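FYI - complex with heme C, inputs then prediction.
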Amino acid sequence: MVVVLCLLIFGVGSKVFYQTSPGQRWHPRRSPANVEFKGDQVCVECHKKQVVTQSQSAMGMAMEPVANSKVLAANPVMTFSSGPYTYEIKRKDKQSTYTVTDGKETISLPILYAFGQGKAGQTYVLQYEGAYYESLVSFYNELRGLDFTIGAPRTVPESLKKALGRRLSENETGNCFACHSTGGVTGGKINLGTMTPGVRCEACHGPGGAHVMAIKTGESGRNLIFNPSRLGGDELTQEFCASCHRGSDEFSLLRSMEINNVRFQPYRIFHSKCYSDDRRIACTACHDPHEPLRQNAAHYDSKCLTCHVSKGQAAAQGLAVGCRVGTKDCTSCHMPKIEVPAAHFKFTDHYIRVVKSNEKFPN
Ligand code: HEC
Ligand code: HEC
Ligand code: HEC
Ligand code: HEC
Ligand code: HEC
Ligand code: HEC
Ligand code: HEC
């Protein structure tokens, strides 16, 4: 009897690995060691639509391999100077070289990884004296050229080595890879062998081998791969998407970042009176993670109107009341675009609200 019970538990146990109870969930940034990623080329056989559109999305391209970098190919020579230092990023064949010189000495390194598909900007990761460095200067789309990397000191660097960029600890480098790639960090360690640049299928759904195997042998593939559609709205927003986009778990830290926290959508939306555990206000209510971002305000109206119906209806259904000012393009007034100075980019404030004229940025 005991044996049968154990078998049952273990049998069921392996099947429910990807169900949604907290201990068994796939966590996008915490891949265990020794997992085998299959890659999108396996998923495409049965989920072609998702693979085609997701690979073209900003998340799918969150890290560009240098050889196919659109940004680096389109800007074959970029220069910048700060005090005595001159920077140059130069393309030759499929390689790009990052050079900094003070006129006497020069450090010149191949760019290893380009982070970000470049809608706001792109930052470079280099290797120098056995450590990873974040480039001191980054590409900005608005400038079509270089400026200081966000967070980098804007004072003239005190040495050539400091002018190169910021030395990253192993932990920090791991964090960059965990948020911008698939399988780049396993068991807490950087693992370039299993890495695919960009946030792809298995970054969010976990390794797909068992799922594919089951379907190919005529069984059900359900529960053998993590499906976030079974999460509650708040778990999806403040845990799953927030594992990279950052949210309420880091409330005080993010609050202290003042205007820079407008980048952290789960944190921002948490402030809003609209926000609750309701799936109609979860990240996925407005964004399909398998598609590029929709940039027309009209696309979002129907999302607001699932809750903000007309006054009479609202009262009857106990729902939020509609607007006295606008009937369309709701996000254009209630989700303002906020310029983050050092980012040369206007982020969409996910703190949905009535925006007061001349208001101070609400932290
Ligand atoms: C041979 C076909 C096939 C391949 C290959 C395949 N899938 Fe699936 N997938 C399915 C089918 C069919 C379903 C519907 C569930 C079922 O009936 O088993 C499904 C369901 C899913 C689900 C929902 C699971 C659930 O529990 O609700 C996810 C997520 C998923 N697939 C992701 C992937 C990813 C990621 C890959 C690549 C690693 C992949 N699939 C490869 C056929 C496939
Ligand atoms: C593994 C980390 C990770 C997870 C998990 C993640 N994202 Fe992202 N997401 C990113 C990164 C990195 C970018 C920036 C890509 C770029 O611009 O290079 C991004 C960008 C985006 C964008 C902007 C697209 C654009 O065109 O500007 C949207 C929308 C988005 N994510 C939605 C979501 C949603 C919704 C979820 C949860 C279902 C989610 N993300 C989960 C890492 C992640
Ligand atoms: C906690 C997860 C996380 C970590 C760690 C992280 N990023 Fe990101 N990164 C994101 C998300 C999410 C976005 C999209 C939202 C935004 O622009 O802030 C993003 C955006 C970017 C962008 C702008 C992309 C674009 O298309 O405009 C660059 C460049 C970038 N990250 C570089 C880096 C570098 C370099 C590191 C390591 C030093 C790093 N990131 C670490 C999650 C992360
Ligand atoms: C940024 C995270 C993210 C990435 C990357 C991602 N997905 Fe998903 N996927 C989700 C979320 C979240 C859901 C649940 C959506 C919902 O609840 O509306 C989902 C749902 C699914 C489903 C199940 C749909 C259903 O009806 O239950 C399939 C199948 C799937 N994804 C396949 C893929 C494939 C294939 C890829 C790679 C091309 C991929 N996903 C990449 C986050 C992601
Ligand atoms: C899940 C349902 C839901 C969705 C979706 C939703 N809201 Fe709300 N919203 C609410 C609730 C509930 C309130 C609070 C009503 C109250 O306190 O009377 C609210 C309040 C508001 C307020 C007043 C906020 C304040 O600070 O006084 C505005 C403005 C608003 N919503 C706009 C929007 C817009 C624009 C969208 C779409 C981008 C949207 N909402 C989507 C439920 C929702
Ligand atoms: C009520 C609708 C709504 C919800 C819910 C929502 N977003 Fe957005 N999001 C938008 C709109 C509107 C834009 C701006 C689109 C445009 O015009 O470029 C946007 C843009 C973005 C961008 C691109 C960067 C920027 O600042 O423009 C990212 C990243 C993003 N959303 C992530 C998320 C994440 C993560 C969640 C969950 C916390 C989320 N969004 C929830 C409506 C929404
Ligand atoms: C042209 C800008 C604009 C547009 C577009 C707009 N609103 Fe508003 N909205 C406002 C302003 C301003 C207020 C505050 C009005 C007041 O207090 O009299 C407001 C108030 C609200 C309120 C709070 C109502 C209350 O009394 O608490 C809600 C909810 C709301 N809007 C939802 C929406 C929705 C949903 C849409 C899209 C269908 C939308 N708004 C389109 C500017 C706009």
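DSSP finds 15 helices and 17 strands in the chain. Residues 1-16 have pLDDT under 50 and may be disordered.
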